[in-house]
Queue: 4 jobs
Job 1
Amino acid sequence: MNIRFMTQIETALGTRVLRHTNLPVGFGLTGLRLELADGRMAALKASTEHDDHSLTTEAFMLHELKSHSSLPVPEVYYSDEQLLIMQWLPADGSITPRVQHHAAELLADLHGHPFEYFGYKRDTLIGPLHQPNPHTDKWLSFFRDHRLLYMAKEALKEHALPQKLYDRLEKLADQLAQHLYEPAHPSLLHGDLWSGNIIAGKNGIRGFIDPAIYCGHPEIELAFTTMFNTFSTPFFEAYEAITPLEPGFFEERREIYNLYPTLVHVRLFGASYLPSIDRVLHELGY
């Protein structure tokens, strides 16, 4: 890290950096763990792109979660278009049944508070990808137009999704009311819950990072936690003890909701995710 950049960090934080070590963060960003002279530990993300708004958007999303929920997220110490400096949350545990129970309690509380509309006050990001959030009164319309078809159209434009597969997704989108239902109210969602975005301690969750927030149906959040086996039976038993799920979630709706993050992965990582989309559509009869 060059001296000029380190001076910028110290000026932003109002203290000296005693030590720094590399931190893997992905998507072309630089990551550092900082030990500060005032006793704090911090995590830093830095971008070399002067017009990159991803870091200010991430800071916004963390602020929103902290302001509108009790979900543990890192405090943002400083942010601009090239720097995001946050509280360091040590990961000294794994996703044990005890941690899953704690996660279920936190997420059931997050999902239990009603919001006025689906979408959000501004667009957000999932990873580095744009995520549109226009105010929408109905969940099925929002999921169809601004999640499933939006991400499918972007993948099609990038030649990552074949036209025939897109056409089948469009047929499913026209029939969503046969498979999904409207929730009792819009819920604030973290939006990107997999193990890499969960900081586990020995006795529970220390924090959730890298959000992709919006207001939606809690089931899309719960579905995402199964995509890479982040959470399993202990989590769902604890969650349903607080908020029971409607029948059919595991058998059908989970697969439909996971089409959205699968399309995200198609855009980011390529064709290896296409067979999953084909399988789900085939099983649903499309």
Job 2
Amino acid sequence: MTYSGPIIDVDLHHRWRSDVELLEFVEPRFRELILSERGNAPVDAPAVPMFHYVGGSQKRRDAYPEVGPPGSDYELLCEQWLDPYPVELGVLTYDVGTSGGMPNPYLSSALCRAANDWTAECWLQRPDSRLGGTVLVPTMLPEDGAAEIRRIGSNPRFVEALLVSNGLGEPFGHPVYHPIYEAATEMGLPIAYHLGGDSWTHNSHMSAGGMPSTRFEYHTIANHAAMLHVTSFVTHGVFERFPSLKLLVVESGVSWLPWLFWQLDRLHEIYRRESSWVKRLPSEYLRDHIRLSTQPLEAPSRHEQMLRVFEARHSAGVLPDEWAPKVFHDNAAGVLRMPAATERAVTAGAPR
């Protein structure tokens, strides 16, 4: 397949060069708290908890700039990705933004506000319309999350609201999080879920049987949390209560989706009395409200096997040519709150 049309990248990780850079945006009260707990550590020592991995580095070696971690250098990003390819929009999604589920709920909210202000000033004030911001949503205090969506979401350069850690230990369809979706609907923003935060938050796990001990385990079963969150959105009737809401599931794999909705559809008639607000077949909510990113794509050695799986749910596997405009651009354009400078007509006729 050869595709030369516009691209929307829904998962472009960016990061501050050091925690000191983020601290400049933290409210004085919480900045003092962070600095006091650092004690005699060097000035550039980590002050803000970042994404925790079970060991090793998950970064590509060629992504490291001369100074700072991968994702912190705009010029390198342009050199490696934005300039060589027809990228119309790259959605900045942090690395991976786990501040949303820290044990201290007030600090968690403060760090999300700081991260969003840092993105607005250090990335979105650049004269580059290819960059779109993500509202990092604090979830420990859902009312804070709703307020942050309304505050920073008023900036038209922000194109979605991002959930990473369910710090309350409840899947994201639970009614406790509904104020967040009310705010997102009000601001015209989709909700994005990105795996990763559940790997370290203090009261939830990203996998059913406990925490993995190797990266081999982690990356093999990392979609467990996404399966629960998506199921929760359907069974708690989120899309009935907020009928215009869209959900974008990012970097959580794709091959689990057909089985999940086959199972939901099968059980719908049996258990619908328990979830009476689920008015339609679960697969209909999938069709109208849910999209998945194509990375990672669990492609088998025989590509036609993947294609058959995703034709069963009308999603994208190893792509036929006619699917390309939708998958590379149009599906995302139909979900994100697109900046005016990047709006395009969505191609008609290709399957989702």
Job 3
Amino acid sequence: MNERIREFAIQSGSMEWGDSVIPATMNIEKFAELIVRECIEQVKDFYQEDRFDCFNAAERIKEHFGVDL
């Protein structure tokens, strides 16, 4: 699990159990909000670097979260 996503899960109420995160008590709306906010920050940073286009923004988000599509 990507460390940032793990942090979001914990901030949303999930419990840590050793190396695992147990989402039984997770506030899913809070979890989704944290992810969306992080995506917005990634795109804003990219835009400020004056290299913005949709493809590059998508690639930056994929890399940030360690997602393969």
Job 4
Amino acid sequence: MQFLLWFAFIAFVFVVLALDLGLFNREAKVIGARQALRFTGILVAIAIGFSGVVYYLYANAIGGFGSHLVMERGHQVVRTLSGSEAAWQYLAGYLLELSLSTDNVFVIALIFKYFKVPGKFQHRVLLWGIIGALLLRGLIIWIGAIALAKFSWFMYVFGGLLIISAIKLMRTKDGAHVDPEREYVVRIARRLYPVSPTFDGERFFTKIEKPGAPGVMIGAMTPLFLALLVVETTDVLFAFDSIPAVFGVTQDPFLVFTSNVFAILGLRSLYFALASLISMFRYLEKCLVLLLFYIGAKMIACEYFDWHPHPAVALGPIFLVLGVGVLASIVAAPPLTSKDDIALPEELGETDADGNPIERA
């Protein structure tokens, strides 16, 4: 029964992605802020509404939901969750993951600026990037859940990773930084396969003339595919910060997975909605540093002292800090200027049918 529910949720996710790719956004186009905000609102409403599904499944122990294996003091025990506990843990994990995605939005904007990806092709890169992110994060969550169920000391590992991430985030000036040409995946890709100097519409691969052999056509990657590679690899790096953070909220694999999935599903529309407004959330990054410290320290303390805090103690600070950070950012909102001159879709200039910039004399 539980397997069928997992399958039904994954099927629902791919139906949403298929509709997005094949029905609503079949043609390449620039996604406007109003459309992105509307779609973001729909996804947030669905994600919050899913907490009711979580409550029903766990309150009635349908399909075995409500109990999962964890290691405590070297012994494998069954941890049980009530419907209300599960719903609150899911919501806390979702909000935490969504908040951590703000840095991801900034990095994606820098990647698009570097590769000069036209606005009308950015949706395609993000959609396929999200599909890859879901698969990779699912694998990481599965491995993490198995590790926590068999090795109690993994709580120290996850807690330490979060504290290190908080220190790195605190010491990084103006958010995360990415240099696409220094990414190993880009270097390896350039060595293994030719790269087209120009875009070919929204294609990831094209044909170019072989250097030194006129008339001989060979396969090549387009800059659009390189942008996709960098988006995927940076998301994996972000996943090693965010997934341990959600495991610090709940160790239930279904809650970790579903909260991650809903946050990632909203990342595409979140990018188009927030790329030009990212500077408005100047206090959110400081709040995330505090939260990563808190969750990492709580994971270590819970394991070392065999401490199982009340949900209000465990989850209350997460809702409080995120709420204060967002509210303070809105009240003290600076002028609407893009952070580090982020390239927005309309700033990429006029392009031809293939997406390559048109230079006017």
